[in-house]
Amino acid sequence: MATESIHPAVLPAPSDTRPSGPRPALLRWLALGTLPLVLVLLFLVWPYQHWEFGQRFSVLHGWAKWVSKYADWQFCLLVPLLVGWLVWLRREELRKLPWQGDWRGVLPLAAGLLCYWLGYKADTGYPGFLAVQLVLAGMILLVLGTAWMRALFFAWLFLFFTWPMQPLEDSVASPLRPKTATMAAAMLNLVGVPAVSEGSALQSAPEAARGVMIGDLFSLDVDAKCSGINSLFALMMISALLGYLALKRPRSRLILFACSVPLAVAGNVVRLLLLVAGTLSFGSEFAVGRRIGDHQEMSLFHTFAGFAVFGVALAGMFVLCWLLEGREMRTNLKRHGGGAGPGGVTSIPQPRRTLSQIMVAALLPLAALGVCARTDISFHVSEPGVVLQLPLSLGDYQGREFDMTAQEKNILDEGVKLVRNTYGSATGRQLMATIILSGLVKRSLHRPEVCLPGQGWTVTDSTPVPIRLEDGREITATLLRIFHDKDTGSGARLRTRALNLYWYIGSDGTTCPEHYEHILLTYFDSVFRNIQHRWAMASIYIPLPEQPVGQEDPFIELAALEDARSFIAKLAPAFMTGGKPERGAD
């Protein structure tokens, strides 16, 4: 039988299903070697901001120095470790996910680098914090893909707790303080202890039958440290982590996270109730502490009462978890065990595309650093928008100079200048006008809402007040109503009330009534208008007559406010040199 022979030249070539391009192992080493180095250079090496007005430090170096200094925010140091642990929990799942980068990752990467440059130019750290988040999200999405971003989304979101949200400290604490005092007063009245609240002050109610005046039995002020803000952000972090581990449904996690705020406030209400009970039983010095000058020395009982915040809040979180998904909690916890067996080798279906994405993820940050290197960051502070001189005579007011005290010199930053006059009119009205000019470093002006409680004042509310000056300009000042009580020694208590109006003046005549608004204007103008403001703050203090507690005449305050507005209308044009109207004014 003849056999058919086939010429070797016509044999079909064996098929090669291997993807063309670099080897996957080489790509993995390139990504793991290049991208972390870029992140280190961007956020750990490059001098980013003057964190302490001496030299520029990198984003993470400055963050670590700042957070380590403030006990309220030291929990932020633990967050990167927790994020690493959360990623480790999902290690088996991540090993099975292919690298399928998405070019849409360029958008968050570019947005993060823009934030980085803005913070670098404006010399502020918060855009740098946002840049960390966006650059990480961009790199994950660009190089690894959407499946990786979904798997790492909670860990990435949890990383936000790394950054101290100090601007929220005042904006959240201020409304929490009076609410905490109001709830504590309601609870005390419910259990038969008469109490009243005014602003952030919690005091015993007057009892005419017993001859007890308001505040005789106890008088507490819910300052920022007792308002829940110290524990709020830490409790929010704990609630997010607990919800992720113990709960499975997104709705349950969201409910738990949202409840961290009222639980923190509830804990502080319990803390106030303990302080009231300690005061009634053993006296104010035992329960609260002693005031030495302008410093409040906290008692041991006061310190331990603070643990009630965490005790109440954590107990409430666990109860809420049980109510939401109690029976499934054990199963939910087991799903994080990572016992799925060894994972396979990560596949890279499109090596050439992945190589291009790795190069873009590395070169874009390096290009951003090149732009930063060519950016002019020299600080040329502008001339102030005020004259540091107050008239000694203004209408029917006669003034007298009042020098800076030694205590003020110790508190204020170096380079800060101050002029102050006291004024009196023929009608008996007394006022004190102060102009504080910032030093050559940023944020050298302090908020009165922070300084006044340290001097023994209770701030009841803060209100914007429009004022038309005699030269036609319109400004808006912030009005603070403040008071403090004192014992006369005969069992009666007198209340001293006062009004304090203040506003900020920029180098070009810009004015604004609020602390954080003037900070935002500083950064905006330094980046987009090339103006380095040297801010000044004007303050008008109007004392009101002492009156017995609970017998204050509200019309006295109204008359004082109108006198203060009229006085400012005459005085402000004498020291405000800029002719520019307030931002947003017509």
What this model shows, in words?
The structure is a single chain. The chain is 48% helix and 16% strand. It has helices spanning 24-45, 59-69, 79-89, 91-95, 106-122, 126-144, 146-151, 153-158, 166-190, 229-246, 250-282, 284-287, 300-305, 307-325, 329-334, 351-373, 406-411, 448-454, 515-528, 554-575; strands spanning 195-198, 201-204, 219-221, 289-292, 295-298, 393-394, 397-401, 417-425, 430-437, 458-468, 474-487, 493-505, 511-512, 536-543, 547-548. With 586 residues, the chain is α+β, with helices and mostly antiparallel strands. The longest helix has 33 residues, at 250-282. The relative contact order is 0.10. A hairpin with a 5-residue loop joins strand 11 and strand 12 (493-505). It folds into 3 domains: 24-164 and 347-373, no CATH class; 168-334, no CATH class; 393-575, no CATH class. Helix 9 packs across helix 11 (250-282). The strands form 3 sheets. Strands 6, 7, 8, 9, 10, 11, 12, 13, 14 and 15 form a 10-stranded antiparallel β-sheet that branches. It contains 20 helices and 15 strands.
